[in-house]
């Protein structure tokens, strides 16, 4: 058994958060949801962290779903509270002011797919299986899966995954826009590192601004979104990083961003 449901490690400016219940295929119980919430709060507050990678321990699963043994005997109000607990975590990840990259190394089912969809970018091994199989348990998605599938892949794909409950391949998920990249399982670590190295070298305030305008724009009308983008664009001109970035471009050198 794992000593802790979530493991945390740092490599430079990149923090890795690992769901650490491989003996349960990293299933999400209440303790794991709480530990993940705490880990993401710490990542948000740590100025040394510029990028977060989220993955699962072991070779089989990213996260295979919510912990069915814990859910089986819940009453209606307890089920609603469990759903809200998961939704709060997903929303915290989605609104984190630093890029979160989901490294999908195996099964991402039910709550696992919901967790992956809350990440800003998703890189999947070609062996991964992805789906919302709650219908097979007499349930529906509860951690935001229906809503994020609608936004990522559209109504037809959301209905297919949620009504049929049949997992799809990583390649099919790529075609639907659920994941950003698919690589051979042996290349997953290296590809994730390439992406996170690029993100970690970018201007932190510009990364934060980009996440902000896309999050806001996805929830409002086009005119409001355009106005918000212009306001945030203007704020970038108050940053040292903007001056450094433009100077470096004109001087034909690599910029060194400080997050100021």
Briefly, what is this?
This protein is α/β, with parallel strands linked by helices. It contains eleven helices and ten strands. 48% of the residues lie in helices and 16% in strands.
Describe this structure in words.
With 260 residues, the chain is of the alpha/beta class. Helix 1 packs parallel to helix 3 (76-94), helix 3 runs parallel beside helix 4 and helix 4 crosses helix 5. Helices cover 48% and strands 16% of the residues. It contains eleven helices and ten strands. It has two domains: 6-200, 2-enoyl-CoA Hydratase, Chain A, domain 1; 204-250, Lyase 2-enoyl-coa Hydratase, Chain  A, domain 2 (Orthogonal Bundle), CATH 1.10.12.10. The radius of gyration is 19 Å and the shape is globular. A six-stranded mixed sheet has the order 1-2-3-5-7-10, sandwiched between helices. It has a four-stranded mixed sheet with strand order 4-6-8-9.
| Distance between the first and last residues' Cα | 43 Å
Beta content? 15-25%
Low-confidence stretches: none
Physical arrangement of strands within the biggest beta sheet: 1-2-3-5-7-10
Instruction: Determine the mean pLDDT.
Output: 94
* Overall outline: globular
- Number of H- or I-type helical stretches: 11
Gyration radius (Cα, Å) is 19 Å
The overall number of domains is 2
CATH class of the largest domain: Alpha Beta
The structure class reads alpha/beta
Order of helices and strands: EEHEEHHEEHEEHHEHEHHHH
CATH architecture of the largest domain: Alpha-Beta Complex
Mind describing the biggest β-sheet? 6 strands, mixed
CATH topology of the largest domain: 2-enoyl-CoA Hydratase, Chain A, domain 1
Supply the CATH superfamily name of the largest domain: 2-enoyl-CoA Hydratase, Chain A, domain 1
Instruction: Give the beta-strand count.
Output: 10
């Amino acid at each position: 058994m794992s000593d802790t449901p979530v493991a945390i490690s740092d490599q430079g400016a990149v923090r890795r958060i690992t769901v650490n219940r491989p003996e349960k295929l990293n299933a999400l119980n209440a303790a794991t949801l709480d530990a993940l919430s705490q880990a993401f709060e710490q990542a948000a507050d740590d100025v040394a962290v510029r990028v977060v990678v989220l993955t699962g321990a072991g070779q089989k699963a990213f996260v295979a779903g919510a912990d069915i043994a814990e859910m089986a005997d819940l009453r209606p109000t307890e089920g609603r509270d469990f759903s809200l607990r998961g939704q709060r975590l997903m929303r915290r990840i989605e609104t984190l002011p630093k890029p979160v990259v989901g490294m999908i190394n195996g099964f991402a089912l039910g709550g696992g797919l919901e967790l992956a969809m809350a990440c800003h970018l998703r890189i999947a091994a070609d062996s991964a299986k992805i789906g919302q199989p709650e219908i097979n348990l007499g349930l529906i998605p509860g951690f935001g899966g229906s809503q994020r599938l609608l936004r990522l892949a559209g109504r037809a794909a959301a209905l297919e995954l949620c009504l049929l409950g049949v997992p799809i391949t990583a390649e099919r998920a790529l075609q639907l826009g659920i994941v950003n990249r698919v690589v051979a399982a042996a290349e997953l670590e290296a590809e994730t590192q390439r992406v996170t190295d690029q993100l970690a070298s970018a201007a932190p305030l510009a990364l934060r601004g980009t996440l902000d305008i896309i999050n806001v724009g996805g929830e409002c009308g086009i005119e409001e979104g355009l106005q918000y983008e212009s306001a945030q664009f203007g704020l970038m001109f108050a940053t040292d990083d903007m001056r450094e970035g433009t100077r470096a471009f004109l001087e034909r050198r690599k910029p060194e961003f400080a997050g100021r």
